[in-house]
Amino acid sequence: MLVHDRHVWRLIWGTIIGLVILIALCWSYMPLQDPVSYFNFADQRMFLGIPNFFDVTSNLFFIYVGIWGMLNTFSWLWLRRPKSMMVALFFVNLSVFLTGWGSSYFHMMPNGITLFWDRAPMAMGFVALLVLILSERAPSYVWQVFLVPMIGVGVYSAWVASFQNDIRFYVAVQAGALLATVILLVFRRAVFLNNKLLYTAFGFYFVAKILEHYDHAVFEFCAFSGHTLKHIVAAVAILLINLAIQVKVKRHF
Known about the structure:
The chain has helices at about 10-25, 55, 60-75, 75-80, 85-110, 115-135, 140-165, 170-185, 195-215, 215-220, 225-245. The chain is mainly α. Helix 1 (about 10-25) packs antiparallel against helix 8 (about 170-185) and helix 6 runs antiparallel to helix 7 (about 140-165).
């Protein structure tokens, strides 16, 4: 069921309240830290003097998609799509580009400090994606209010996770942004973004998280580890998000 436009603020405030509850639940637990095993990646092979070669170089997919997405933002789309959406999409792709470099740096020297440079742009990307969806499904000025503060919150959550050894806030921000995005996708009519491609992108992201979790298991019967494949699959998800704003949305009257 689609929510009528006059109820948009009910949806937004309901989502905000849900996010507050999610953060409160995270804070009800003791501080959570990354397990030591998190840094024990399956594929530690070195090539060309680069440690963890495939986990490092697979980030080239993020860098490529990020550059392509940023350049594409200023193509014909800039003239035919709302500027609010294009600005948000630019930040999504910028975060992907920075994630490629940050993740490469982290995988060359895996530790809690270098992990910040991987997590910070990822957190920025999740909240920028939420603002992208908001910019289409909420009043036009909403993105101006939320974009910069939400990106700041995302980066701060990554800083807390890395430098205060507490991942609760980071998990809440990432999970909350994804939850809010899905809620808006389900209950608000698409105007410019193709929902089918967005749902497919979320499917690829889900597969990427599975590959990450079974990093060692995948490496036992595959030439590449689960984490390496996760980078590639996640990059495809971002590519689909970029395509979602180009594919015509079918109107149902």
